[in-house]
Amino acid sequence: MLHVLGSINLDLVAKGERLPLAGETVIGTEFFTAPGGKGANQALAAARAGAGVKMFGAIGDDSFAPLAMQELKEENIDLSGVKSLAGTTGIALIMLDAKSENSIMVIPGANGKVDQEMARQCTASMTSSDHLVLVQEIGAATIKAALKEAKAKGVKSILNIAPAIHETKSLALLADIIIANETEILHLFDDKIPNEAIEQYAAEWAKKNNKTLIVTLGKEGAIAFTKTQKIKVAAPKIKAIDTVGAGDSFCGYLAAGLDRGENLETALVQAVTAGSLACLKPSAQGAIPHMAEVKNAITA
After folding, report:
1. How does DSSP assign 163-216, residue by residue?
2. pLDDT digits (tens, 9 = 90+) for 223-236
3. DSSP 236
4. Cα(first)–Cα(last) distance of the chain, in Å?
5. pLDDT at residue 259 greater than cutoff 90
6. Catalytic positions
7. CB burial of residue 55 (10 Å; 0-12, 13-18, 19+)
8. Cα–Cα distance, 277 to 173 (Å, whole number)
9. Which of 102, 196, 133 is nearest to 7 (CA)?
């Protein structure tokens, strides 16, 4: 089973022709709300991929909380680990331009109260056959505690280093599998490196630290490095509508595949396909595909 310890948000989404520059106001074209949060998104993606999922996190006691939980409640996800706390639910302010590029600001709210005790509760019933999924929209001390508890139990841990934080480098060294995009991965290295050297540095980092390091490459797919392997998977050609759910769909599907016992390449193919399909619909959770859609796209 997958245990996901992470953020639960409500997304407030504004769309316009272009993103504003610093200090600039632009007129938008559309506004809507949608449940989100990287933890919730990845839990939902894993459930739609067919995994058994237990979600751990926190929501506030405000009017945003029911909206933030709506999609999670409609899937077969164990939500007994989600706490309702005094205060506000996490909020993500998302701006999208006409080319589907985004700019996001996150207000943690209740996510900032996900503490080390919740980390211990998350890992308490886990066994070596389970997988732990973590994102960096909760506190670094909480992530560290969960990773250490998982390691002590022989549980495989998957850390998506998004958004990158000051502790990213040290936290990554505690995880078994690390997922990053081309910007986030730079936080693992001591040196400033050009884009053309990312693959070389990633391969060396994975080998040196005996980790699985996965780099998502947007429309180019993804590449995984282990101590002995390099696996690159191309993405299907699509016309993106909204890219905001792509990364979390990728992470959830990858975790689900590995939890089913699939090999890394198979899980990676499904994850890349799911991430691409998520770009064909607006919003994060509403765009996450179901397994049948992913399988059809792979065999098409």
Report:
1. S--TTHHHHHTT-SEEEEETTGGGGG-SS---GGGHHHHHHHHHHHHT-EEEEE
2. 999 999 999 999 99
3. P
4. 30
5. yes
6. 248
7. buried
8. 31
9. 133
The H helix count followed by the E strand count for the chain is 9, 13
Q: How far apart are CA 48 and CA 40, in angstroms?
A: 12
The letter for the amino acid at 157 is S
Give the whole-angstrom CA distance, residue 131 versus residue 255.
Answer: 7
Burial class for 31, CB neighbours closer than 10 Å (0-12, 13-18, 19+):
exposed
96 contacts: CB under 8 Å, gap ≥ 6: 13, 14, 15, 16, 102, 242, 244
Q: Distance between CA 98 and CA 297 in Å, rounded?
A: 26
- What are the residues facing 84 on neighbouring strands? 59
Sketch out the chain's domains with CATH numbers.
Answer: 2-6+39-64+77-83+112-299 (3.40.1190.20)
Task: Identify the CA nearest to 262 among candidates 76, 131, 160, 151.
Answer: 131
pTM of the model: 0.92
At 18-37, the pLDDT tens digits run 999 999 999 999 999 999 99
